[in-house]
Design goal:
Length: about 120
């Protein structure tokens, strides 16, 4: 199990769009390693998308469709990054002073965000 003996939030959703979780006593299990590799790929892709966004935002005459595509990619990357952060936050040692919120709530739409 994880440090808190909690289920691990996996970096993918089920067919119904709901969060998937893993219960294991071994952080080095096949599924744990697969999840680690997917998380690393998602974070790497987010870095690439951010670099691309910086390039596009420097173009004063960028096409609106290109901006729309960029926003879509940024939203997906942010969603995946928040899921990784939530999963990793839940696996911090119990002595940590870091507060971790509900992963599903963090990933759902929020009306209090001004943008």
């Amino acid at each position: 199990m994880t440090a808190h003996h909690e289920l691990r939030l996996l970096p993918w959703s089920g067919f119904d769009g709901k969060a998937c979780y893993l219960s294991t006593d071994h952080d080095n299990s096949h599924l744990s390693r697969l999840a680690d590799n997917i998380e690393a790929a998602q974070l790497s892709l987010a870095v690439d998308i951010l670099a691309h966004a910086r390039e596009i935002l420097g173009d004063a005459e960028v096409d609106p469709e290109k901006l729309r595509g960029l926003l879509s990619a940024l939203a997906r990357a942010l969603h995946h990054t928040l899921r990784v952060a939530t999963s990793r936050g839940h696996r911090l040692p119990a002595s940590s002073d870091i507060a971790v919120g509900d992963g599903d709530a963090a990933l759902s739409g929020r009306s209090d965000v001004p943008f």
